[in-house]
Amino acid sequence: MADSVDRVFVHALNTVKKIPKTGASRPPPADRLRLYGLYKQAMEGDVDGVMERPSSLKGGQNNEGLQGDELKRERDKWDAWDAQRGVSRTEAKRRYIEALIDTMHKYASTTA
User: Fold this and answer.
1) Helices then strands, each counted (H, E), the chain
2) Cα separation, 98 vs 40, whole angstroms
3) Domains along the chain with CATH numbers
4) Class of residue 12 by CB neighbours under 10 A (exposed 0-12, middle 13-18, buried 19+)
5) 74 in Cβ contact with 66 (< 8 Å)
6) What is the Cα Rg of the chain in Å?
7) Which residues, including other chains, have CB under 8 Å from residue 85's CB and lie 6 or more apart?
8) So what's the pLDDT on residue 65?
9) In 1-112, beta strands by DSSP E
10) Average pLDDT by stretches of 10, the chain with 112 residues
11) By the 8 A CB rule, do 90 and 5 touch?
12) Comparing C-alpha atoms, which of 63, 91, 93, 84 is closest to residue 75?
């Protein structure tokens, strides 16, 4: 079962790679963040122990005194990943696939 989830997950990732990085055809930020959080959970597991939440203080583990929009963007990504805490990697892959399909259905119905 996990094998089939892995195959579909890889196909989903390849589909996402084809979405333009800029322009009106991108899913809204909330949907992109949800997909990001599920992706990170599927690939790495819980964020705990991997990295600290980004802060504006210098000397943090994975940030060098981020500020403004960059700090908010990195915190939003961290929070999206942390929201998936406790979800198994296989379940995160399933949820990623479902979220991508939902996002694509929404996108297809709003651009026609």
Assistant:
1) 4, 0
2) 15
3) 2-111 (1.20.80.10)
4) buried
5) yes
6) 15
7) 41, 46, 47, 48
8) 63
9) none
10) 90 86 76 96 95 75 69 96 98 97 80 48
11) yes
12) 63
Taking Cα atoms as reference points, which of 90, 100, 91, 76 lies closest to residue 17?
A: 100
Query: Would you state the structure tokens that stand for residue 91, as one six-digit string?
Result: 């379940």
> For residues 110 and 81, what is the distance between their CA atoms, to the nearest angstrom?
27
Instruction: Could you list the beta-strand ranges (E) of 44-83.
Output: none
Give the number of other CB atoms < 10 A from CB of residue 37.
26
Instruction: Scan for tokens 């981020």, then name that residue.
Output: 66
Q: Which two tokens stand for residue 79?
A: 């929070």
User: What per-residue confidence (pLDDT) applies to 19?
Assistant: 75
Predicted confidence at residue 64, as pLDDT, reads 59
